Amino acid sequence: MGPSKEMQAAVKNDHTIVVGGGAIGVCIAYFLARRGCRVTLIERDGIAAAASSGNAGLISLGHLPLPRPGLLTTSLRWMLDRTSPLYIPPRPDLPLLAWLIRFARACSTRQLRTSMEVIAAISRSTIELFDHFAEDLKIDFQYRPTGYMDVFRSKDAWNHARRDAEYIRSFGFPEKEIGPDEVYRREPALLDGVVGAIAHEGSAFAEPAEFVRGVADAARALGAVIMTDSEVRSIRTANGAVSGVQTSTESFGCDRLVLAAGAWTTSLAKLAGVRVPMQPAKGYHVNITTPTESLRSACMLGDTYVICTPINGYLRLAGTLELSGLNHNIRQERVDMLIRQAAAYLPGIAEAPVISQWCGLRPCTADGLPALGWAPRVRNLYVATGHAMMGFWTSPMTGRVVSEHILDDSPSIDIHAMRLERF
Ligand SMILES: Cc1cc2nc3c(=O)[nH]c(=O)nc-3n(C[C@H](O)[C@H](O)[C@H](O)COP(=O)(O)OP(=O)(O)OC[C@H]3O[C@@H](n4cnc5c(N)ncnc54)[C@H](O)[C@@H]3O)c2cc1C
After folding, report:
1. Does the structure show a pLDDT above 80 at 14?
2. 189 Cα to the center of ligand 1, angstroms
3. Residue 361 alpha carbon, nearest atom of ligand 1
4. Nearest CA to ligand 1 atom 12
C-alpha cells in the first residue's frame, strides 16, 4: 500500500534538491516537478556539461550490459593495449582492483539474466517517453525513432552477435539479423566487405545534449529551480537524515536530497557516509564534417564497438572504454583510433575535417546495473547513478521511476536489483 493522500501532499510540499544536471538529474527534476514537487537542481557547470553532452546518442533498447560471460577473457587480452576498445593503464589503485574483482564475478550468466530483466523493464515505456518529449513538449533533439544497426565485417564477430541477438530476443526485443544485400540497401555508403548486421528495429538515436537542455527547460517551465555554476561541496546531516547542502555559492536547506552526479556520485555520497563504489569509464568522441557519402542512420561498427551517429551538420564517431580514473585527459591515440576504425567501414572518414573531440566519464558499477534507491542509514538521501553505457536512453524511465518511488513508494518497475544495499 502506498502513502496516504495527506502524506503524498506533504511529500510534494517538501523541498527536494537534485544534484547533477546530466540526463539523469534533469529527468528526475522534470518528473518530480510534473507531479507538483518543489525541486531545486544544482549543477556545478552548465546543463549537460559532462557524460550526457557528448555520448553517441543511441536509444538502444535491450543493449547488453558490460559484464557478461566471456567478456573477462576478451578484456584481459584488451586491457593493456592502448588501441583496443578497453584500456586500463597499469597503476596501483585499490578501489579499481576491488572493482575489477567484483566485475569479474559479475561476468556470469546469472548476473546477465538479472541485468537483462531490469533492462527489459526499463525499455518497456522508453520510446513512449521519448515520444512525449519530442511530440508533446516539442523538444527538438533530432530524435530519430528509426532503429539502428550493428554492422559486421568479421564473420566471427557477426556469428557472435547473432548468438547475442537470439538471447536478447528472448527478452522481447525485435533484434533482426540481416544479410549484406539488405545492409547495403539500407546503408549504401558502407564500403565493401560487410558480412551482415543486427538491426535494432525498436530503437532510436538523437542528439543527447539538446535532449538534456530541453528537459531542463521543461522542468523549469514546471517550476523547478535550475542552479548552474554551483558545486555542492558538503552535505549537512543530523539524526540520520540530510538537512541541506553547502555549495560553492550558498547554503540550501532541503527535506530530501537526490544524488545524480554521474561519476562524481561516489565522492559526494561519501560526504554523507554512503558507499556507492563505481569506476569512471572514459569514452571519446570525434565529430567530423559529414563525408559526401555517409550514413542514413546510426551504426555500431562490428567488433570495433565504434558508434557512428549522423547528427545535423556532422558525423559523430564515439566509443572506447578506458578505466584511467576521474579525469578528462584525452589520449590522442584513442581518438585517432575512432577515425582509423571507422575508415575501414565508410569512405571519406580519414580526409574529413575534424570539428571537435571530446571525452566523458560513464559512471560504472561493477555489476553493470545502476545504483538506484534510498541510501542505507540516511533516510532522506536518494541515489540515482551508475547508468554506465546506457544513461542517455534510460534517463526518462529513471526520472519517472525515481519520482514514483519518492512520491508514491511504488515504482512501476521492480528496482530491487539496483538497490544500494548490494554494495
Ligand atoms: C563515448 C560515450 C558514448 C556513450 N554512448 C551512449 C549512448 O549511445 N546511449 C546511452 O544511453 N548512453 C551512452 N553513454 C553513457 C551516457 O553518456 C551516461 O551513462 C550518462 O550521460 C550519465 O548521465 P548522468 O546524468 O548520470 O551523468 P553526467 O552526464 O556525467 O552528469 C553528472 C553531472 O553532475 C555534475 N556534478 C558532479 N559533481 C557535482 C557537484 N559536486 N555539484 C554539482 N554538480 C555536480 C556534473 O557536472 C555533471 O554535469 C555514452 C558515454 C560515453 C562516454
Report:
1. yes
2. 31
3. 53
4. 390
- Does the beta carbon of 363 sit less than 6 angstroms from any atom of ligand 1? yes
Q: Give the separation between CA 326 and CA 22, rounded to whole angstroms.
A: 17
Q: Is the CB of 264 inside a 6 Å radius of any atom of ligand 1?
A: yes
Distance of CA 50 from the midpoint of ligand 1 (Å): 5
Instruction: For ligand 1, say whether the CB of 45 is within 6 Å of any of its atoms.
Output: yes
Residues comprising the chain, all counted: 423
Other residues' Cβ atoms within 10 Å of the Cβ of residue 408: 15
Radius of gyration in angstroms for the set of CA atoms belonging to the chain, rounded to a whole number: 21
- Give the span between the Cα atoms of 91 and 79, in whole angstroms: 12
Is 88's C-beta closer than 6 angstroms to any atom of ligand 1?
no
Query: Architecture of domain 5-52+210-277+368-422 in CATH?
Result: 3-Layer(bba) Sandwich (3.50)
Average pLDDT over residues 17-31: 98
Instruction: Give residue 2's pLDDT.
Output: 43
Q: Is the CB of 46 under 6 A from ligand 1?
A: no
Q: Is 261 near ligand 1, meaning CB less than 6 Å away?
A: yes
Q: Is 154 exposed, middle or buried (0-12, 13-18, 19+ CB in 10 A)?
A: middle
Query: 175, 62 in Cβ contact below 8 A?
Result: yes
Which tens digits make up the pLDDT trace of 300-343?
998 789 999 999 889 999 999 999 999 999 999 999 999 999 99
pTM of the model: 0.96
Query: Which architecture characterizes domain 70-99+279-364 according to CATH?
Result: 2-Layer Sandwich (3.30)
